[in-house]
Every structure is written in structure tokens, then in C-alpha cells.
């Protein structure tokens, strides 16, 4: 086994997620059956992969699909630089390299039996989408209590997974709150920033865990609100982003104190983060 | 060498009279053959200052990172004063914020050469005129200072500080300062194959720690070409191509800018020779443009200057 | 295990035999003093030196630049790592201790780094017991000893005109089992020497609760003070036998994905694509280096991540001495504690 060896994967489908074309989802399938088997044996929502295009390098992306959706693996990629530009140019049929799943992912066992409030913003919502898809799956739904989703985007054009999320409004086994920053014609959901929406709609903290993933600024303002609402630090989960290279706890780059975000994370409870040196 | 008491007194004065906020000089290091650069913030700390041959660094290299409005005193030898001039010309330093305390220079001792020359654990070194008295565990050795001087200092053409605000001590009479680097002459005296052999042997020992760059007063780019990722401008590895590219481009970027202080070589843990290349490029600048780095407060280095009415057009 | 011996003047003959089977790599004269070199002739090796090599032998297991894959049409092919087995000879115990420390990173169960693993498995390490530590050495302050065994297969000790060997692993004993057994008096002498060497070594600092002291200073201006003259170069970390950070880079022209050493002392190391840098200044970077070695390693495996080899002390271009940082940190934190 070679930790740095990417698996060959093929682009199956490319989805334009947003009106400004900065976000695309890529569904990749495995070239080798053994890779596929190994991947799904390990995969757990909240994990990420190192996505590589030779010559441009590798970068970590959260996995945006649930295992049952497979045999493909979905990544949602925002076009912000040279590697992501190259990824955005990929067409169905193209071959790429992927390493993963990496990291700890969300602690499904600990979340079982509890109510969940899932709070996300921007493209970091991708792993929360995977988590939600996992929970909503008919065989899994009964394992969890009430489910509340708060999802914010700058404007409606930047909302991810639109059709699917629209269909969540019709379901009786979850509550979905979508928010955009400023009012728009035809938008009949929330208007405002995620932390404010959370303040309004969050469920009671009793037997509830909160999971927050979003741009650093959103996370920074949401965490204190959850604490104010009475969520204990060990029931607030968040996923960190750091510059990563190896993704497997070897290259040293992503450490916060003695923890490596790639290996010990990316998901940490607020309690764990409070115990680490503030080197973020 | 400056009278150390006079130097400390001056530092103490400029700090207590608030002429400067801080003074940069050297203090004794943790090993007998090293000094450590030190920022003196309070007048009473000025007693920490030393003035000996173990100040390996070019202190001007430590100025770039200071707060913008800080008034800073710098104890300058010749190369430091020339670097500061060059940096001022390149608009990297504001001369108004600097108070330059010139000291006579006797050249910097190459501590590695000294340790090899005595071959034993050095407990103390004292300077005695032209000699060094070295105390070893169970022996004492005396050797000529000149024997273990760093090559940059042996070849130095302008050891005396220029453009300073005050001079501590007296400048010695200087005789027979070489006008051209003998190391360059020796290098040029060889044929192309031999020159390439020297260059590649030196460059390829490089471990790309960039101490040379960080120790150099004239390497101040916020993003060095080797750190540029998209696109990558040179091979990232410690391969032949990677190390040679680093050495060539680094030197080239120093054309007409290197002040020949040798701080890069003294910082290099692999003891790689580099100054012969930048010195050679500087000689070209002299011959072709009559330009000498740090010679005055106005002339831009020819390869770093840009003028709208340049004689040659970029494109016809 | 038993002690073997060979006269000093017979040793080159033995090494000549080893050279046939192994890449025998030992300290040898270099332009900048002493460096490890794969020798073709025993006369090149220099054992029992007053100083250590500048470049640490970790590079034989984690080369500074290493090809991870060749890439063709987007397919990543790991290179065959077929090497003649290496015999590292005359390694100081601080450096073998570093192998042992790095094994915990690169040979972690189920997460082995194939490249390190392969090179490590293909090698034999003979350490040289240190009876003359230098002024910059401080192994006994960080959990090591001048005759420490960690990370070596065999340790050799010089007693006037004989070398005495002690094997700690099976492959180590296999190498020397044909040598004559050392007599009881010799063994006694070796043991005595080991004891006195450790006892005579002065302590550079008191390491009690060092981790806690450092954590207490995390937000303190202390780091700004100690890093004030740091150049932000790679000397202290590249020469350090226990630093292992690396970067992964695609070299398009070579058609290779490679890894190169990298260091937390470089500004660009932690620079994120967004422009955010979690360690934006030299104070934060110096704190990372020192805390990784003396606090985070303790958190992970309860050992210091510094072996006291002194390379960073000797070679820092501005003489920032990690021993002084540690002592100053102890004093500062104690003072803070007292003020509470
Ligand atoms: S290149 Fe070397 S000799 Fe020239 S100014 Fe820089 S440090 Fe001094
Ligand atoms: S200091 Fe020496 S080893 Fe380091 S990059 Fe410069 S030339 Fe190379
Ligand atoms: S930190 Fe310094 S003394 Fe410690 S192992 Fe590394 S180089 Fe050696
Ligand atoms: S001290 Fe810095 S370079 Fe060394 S291993 Fe730790 S993080 Fe990496
Ligand atoms: S070697 Fe010295 S100057 Fe260079 S990064 Fe380390 S502490 Fe700073
Ligand atoms: S990305 Fe290499 S250690 Fe985390």
C-alpha cells in the first residue's frame, strides 16, 4: 500500500451548480473495482479526498455524496485558482487521480439517536450535504432524531444542489431553512446571515448535536451563538480547512498543536478545539 | 575596531535622547566563536553590545521586517553602510528613519575556518592585534587573524562605512585594497570546463535552505522566484537543475546590487562559494555602465532601473 | 546480547568485506567538514570525530528530494525502490535516536510510508558510542544518552585499540556473529565508559514540565523576543535529524510527482491559497518549531522531538540557540507562575 498513490478515477458527470459557474460538481467513478470496494468500506460522510491533476498538483475536497448514492463519488469544486480552474475544465471521460477517503469524518455513531442541527454555508456545505443524504436514506433515517438544516448562500444563484434541496421542503421528516444575504425577487425563504437564522430557528439543545461547516467567518460567528443557545462544546462539531499536502499526517503541514487536521480531523468538536493552541 | 565603551555610550545616548527607538548591533553569542545580532531597546542594555570579528551577518538584512515608522540606529561596518545606501536607492529603506553609527572594520572571522584551523573544542577567543588567541580545552593557540578572515573581507575594497551619522573610533589607514576580487580573477583564469566544474560542484552541494537569501540585505522580495508556484519558474528539487537554477538566478538578480559582504556565504551551512559570481557580475556593471553599488545616494543599479526614454526599445 | 570485538587496525578489512555487500555509508571528509558518504574504500571513513556531520543522516531514509511517482497519461506509477542494502556506519546515537523517533511517524501501524519503510528495511545502522560529546551536544537533557541505543542495530565503542560491538537486533547480530567474543574485562570497560560519558555530560536545561511551561507561554510576547533576529531560513530544520516536513510537487518536465523537504520556518509553508497565513510572522513560526519539538512530540509519544544533536545550535546563521530559548522559556513561565 502506498499512501500517496492516487487511484485512477474517471469523470462521469459534470454539474454546473451555480449561475455564475464558479461551482461545479464532479461525479467520478472508479477505474478499478478493488479501489471502489476499499473506498466504500472506509467512507463516512465528512471525509475528504486529495484530488489531483498531474502537473497542477493535488488539493483536498470534501466528499459531497453519500455512499448509497454510489458507485460514484461527488466533489463540489469552487474555481479559485490554477488547480481548480483545471478541474473545472474537466469533461466526462477524463481521467484524474484521487486519494481517499481521508480524515475522520462525522462521528455517526455518536450522533445516532440524537436530534441534529446541520448548519452550512458556501461550498463547505458539500460534506454536510453528504451527511444529510446519508441520514435521509430510508434505512438510516430511523437511527437519528429530528433533523434541522440551515443553509446559507450569498444569493440564490449560489445555492448548491438546488433541485434536491427544494424537494426537502416537501418532506415531513426534516426541516430545511435556506437563507440568502440580501432580499431577492421570488425568494420566499430566509434573508440574512446564517448565525442570525440559527438564532431564530435552532432547535432546543436538549439531546441535540450541532454540526457547522462554512466559510471561516460564518463558523466564527455561529459557534458563540450555539453556545449561547445552550449547546455544550462537546456537542458542537465543525470541520476545519487547512493547507494540506500529504493528507495522511506525515508532511507536518496542517498541524494545530499536536493534532493534524488531515488525520485527526477535519471534524473536531468545539471542546477539542478549545483545548488546542490557537494556531489557526 | 571601535572603542567598545564609546560605542555603548553613543548607543545609550541615542536611545535615552530618543533619537532612535531601537539600535541594531551584535552581542556575544552562545558559542565562543559566534555573535548574535541584537536589537537594543533600552539605554541600559547597551552594555550587551560587542565589537569583534564574529559579527557574521550583514545587519542591514534585518531591517526589512521592522515596523515602518520605527526610528532605528544601526551599527555599521563598510558593507552594512553600502547595503543601506543601496536599499535606500531602491526605496526599500527610508534614510530619515535611520541613524547610522559607523565603526571601523577589521574584517569578519570565518568561524568555520577558525575551528578547522585549531581542530579542538574552542573555549574562548581573544583578539590581540593582528593575532587571535584561542583557548582550547587543554591548550592555547595563537594564529594570525588574516589566516581565518572570511574571503569577502580579505577581498574587501571598501571596509570603511559610508554616509553614516556618526563614526565611533578612527578609521585606520588603508593600503593596498584590491580593486578587483582576486577570487574572480582566479575563476576567470580557468577555461570554461574548469569554470563549469567549479560552479556545478558548488551549486550542487546546495540544500536549498535559503539561508543565503535570508541573510542577504539585497534579497528582499516578498515572493522569491523559487517560491512562486503558478507557474513554477524552476525545478523545486535539490537536483542538478534545481540547485543550478537557484544559484544562477539568485546571482543574476544581484547584478549591480550585491555589496560583496559575503553574508550569504557565511550563512551557508554547506559553505558554498557564491560571491565570485555576483562579484563578477558587478565588475561587468562597472565596465559597461561605470556603476558601483552603494557609491552614492542616487544611482540606480543598471539592471534594476527602468526609464521611459530608455535608449533601446523593448520591441520595435 | 553478547559483545564482539575487533582490533581497530583490523576493522578496515572487515569494512572492505561489507562494502561488497552493502552501500557502506560513513562520515567522510567534505568541503564543509564532515558529511556522510558512500565509501568505496575503508580509508575514506572517519570514525570517532570531534564533531558531527553537518547534514543529518535522516536523508538516507527521507531524501531531501525524492520521486514519488512517474506520471504518464495521468497514471501514477511508483518507482521500484531497488537499492543495494545500506550499512550506515559510525552514526552518533543522537542521530539514530532520530531514526527511532521518525519511525513513529513513518512506520505508524497501518499508515506506513512505503518509501521510508523500504529504505529503513534495506539498511543496517551501526552507531558509534560517543565518548567525547561536543559543547553543542545536549542529548542527556532531552532523553538521550551518548551511548543511546534507539534506532541502531549495532553499537560500536572504541576502547583504545579495539572496537567493541553490541548488537541490538537480529540483523545486527547476523552481521557480526562471526567476530570474536569480547572478554569480561572488556565488557566491563565498555559499560563503565557508557556510565561515565552520560554522567559527565552537563545538562543544558532542566526539562521538567517543559511542555507545560511552553504551553503557558503560547500567547506570550516571549516568541516575538526570541524570534526578533531569526532570518526565517531552513538551516535549523533542514539540518535537524528529526525534522521531517515535506512538500509534494509535480515536476511536469520530468513527468514526476516528487516530494521535497519543507519547513515550518519558511513563510510560504503555511501560506494558504486564500492569502490567510495561520503563522504570519517569525514569532509564530519559531514557536511552532520549538513547541513541536518540546511540547507536541511529548503530547504524541511522550518523548522530546529533539535529540540534542546541536546542529541547529552550531549552524544557525544568527546564533539562535534552542537551548537558550528553552531555558528562557522555563524562566519566563516560572516567573509568570510566581506572579499569579
Ligand atoms: S549576495 Fe552575498 S555578498 Fe552580495 S550582498 Fe547579498 S549577502 Fe552580501
Ligand atoms: S545557504 Fe547554501 S545551502 Fe542554503 S540555499 Fe544558500 S547556497 Fe544553498
Ligand atoms: S532541534 Fe537542534 S539540537 Fe535538537 S535534534 Fe534538531 S538540530 Fe539537533
Ligand atoms: S519543527 Fe517544523 S520543520 Fe521540523 S518537523 Fe516540526 S513542523 Fe516540521
Ligand atoms: S537557522 Fe536560525 S535564522 Fe534560520 S530559521 Fe532557524 S533560528 Fe531562524
Ligand atoms: S496534510 Fe500532511 S500532515 Fe496533514
TrEMBL record, chain A:
[2Fe-2S] cluster binds at residues 246, 251, 254, 262. One of its GO terms (biological process) is pyrimidine nucleotide biosynthetic process. Keywords: 2Fe-2S, Electron transport, FAD, Flavoprotein, Iron, Iron-sulfur, Metal-binding, Transport. Pfam families: DHODB_Fe-S_bind, NAD_binding_1. The keyword Metal-binding applies. GO terms for molecular function: 2 iron, 2 sulfur cluster binding; flavin adenine dinucleotide binding; metal ion binding; oxidoreductase activity. CDD domains: sulfite_reductase_like. Its cofactor is [2Fe-2S] cluster. Binds 1 [2Fe-2S] cluster per subunit. InterPro entries: Cyt_c3_hydrogenase_gsu (IPR012165), Dihydroorotate_DH_ele_sf (IPR037117), Dihydroorotate_DH_Fe-S-bd (IPR019480), FAD-bd_FR_type (IPR017927), FNR_nucleotide-bd (IPR039261), OxRdtase_FAD/NAD-bd (IPR001433), PyrK_electron_transfer (IPR050353), Riboflavin_synthase-like_b-brl (IPR017938). It comes from the Bacteria. Residues 4-108 form the FAD-binding FR-type domain. This is NAD(P)H-flavin reductase.
From TrEMBL, chain B:
Residues 196-217, 249-279 form the 4Fe-4S ferredoxin-type domain. GO terms for molecular function: iron-sulfur cluster binding; metal ion binding. It comes from the Bacteria. Keywords: Iron, Iron-sulfur, Metal-binding. Pfam families: Fer4_8, FrhB_FdhB_C. InterPro entries: 4Fe4S_Fe-S-bd (IPR017896), 4Fe4S_Fe_S_CS (IPR017900), FrhB_FdhB_C (IPR007525), Helical_ferredxn (IPR009051). This is Coenzyme F420 hydrogenase/dehydrogenase beta subunit. It comes from Pelolinea submarina. The lineage of its organism: Bacteria, Bacillati, Chloroflexota, Anaerolineae, Anaerolineales.
UniProtKB/TrEMBL annotation, chain C:
Transmembrane segments: none annotated. PROSITE patterns: 4FE4S_FER_1, 4FE4S_FER_2. SUPFAM superfamilies: alpha-helical ferredoxin (SSF46548). GO terms for molecular function: iron-sulfur cluster binding; metal ion binding. Pfam families: Fer4_22. Gene3D superfamilies: Alpha-helical ferredoxin (1.10.1060.10). It comes from the Bacteria. Residues 220-251, 297-325 form the 4Fe-4S ferredoxin-type domain. Keywords: Iron, Iron-sulfur, Metal-binding. InterPro entries: 4Fe4S_Fe-S-bd, 4Fe4S_Fe_S_CS, Helical_ferredxn. This is 4Fe-4S dicluster protein. It comes from Pelolinea submarina.
